[in-house]
Amino acid sequence: MFRKIKDWFIDMKAEFKKVVWPKFAKVRQNTFIVILFVIIVGAIIWILDWLFNLGFTALLTK
Question: What is this structure's pTM?
Fold first, then answer.
């Protein structure tokens, strides 16, 4: 059993050596894009929530 665990870690280490890690500039660019899209989608959801709230309030008060 311990041999299988050891082999698994050895295989995992070998696989990690095959990974092509991105440069820091690419990581920074992708992070910026993700944050920007999260802000945009959050703003859209907030605006839709506000509009639906106005509509339901108008329906319930009449």
Answer: 0.65
